[in-house]
């Protein structure tokens, strides 16, 4: 007799961001294995959540450094534009005085 295929699929649990943050905080305090046992999760799940949180933090740091550099470059552009405008006015002034 052949085994019949069951149509029941196990659905994946979805956890909120707040739950993940609390689980990671617990894992930091008591260790990943103990936290996983206490929460009924796989240890690998906690490690994956930790890796994603770290990657998100690194991305945030990178975005912040790019924003700082962007602000610095905008200030530099404004200064250069002002210097160029002053130079043009001086050139016009001296050109008139030469005539």
Automatic annotation (TrEMBL):
<dbReference type="InterPro" id="IPR009057">
    <property type="entry name" value="Homeodomain-like_sf"/>
</dbReference>
<dbReference type="InterPro" id="IPR002514">
    <property type="entry name" value="Transposase_8"/>
</dbReference>
<dbReference type="GO" id="GO:0003677">
    <property type="term" value="F:DNA binding"/>
</dbReference>
<feature type="coiled-coil region">
    <location>
        <begin position="56"/>
        <end position="90"/>
    </location>
</feature>
<dbReference type="Pfam" id="PF01527">
    <property type="entry name" value="HTH_Tnp_1"/>
</dbReference>
<dbReference type="GO" id="GO:0006313">
    <property type="term" value="P:DNA transposition"/>
</dbReference>
<comment type="similarity">
    <text>Belongs to the transposase 8 family.</text>
</comment>
<keyword id="KW-0175">Coiled coil</keyword>
<dbReference type="GO" id="GO:0004803">
    <property type="term" value="F:transposase activity"/>
</dbReference>
<protein>
    <submittedName>
        <fullName>Transposase</fullName>
    </submittedName>
</protein>
């Amino acid at each position: 007799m052949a085994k019949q295929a069951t149509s029941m699929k196990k659905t994946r649990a979805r956890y909120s961001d707040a739950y993940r943050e609390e689980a990671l905080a617990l894992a930091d305090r008591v260790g990943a294995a103990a936290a996983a046992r206490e929460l009924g999760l796989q240890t690998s799940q906690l490690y994956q959540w930790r890796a994603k949180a770290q990657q998100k933090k690194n991305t945030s740091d990178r975005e912040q450094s790019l924003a700082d550099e962007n602000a610095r470059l905008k200030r530099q552009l404004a200064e250069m534009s002002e210097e160029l405008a002053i130079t043009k006015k001086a050139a016009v002034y001296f050109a008139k005085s030469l005539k």
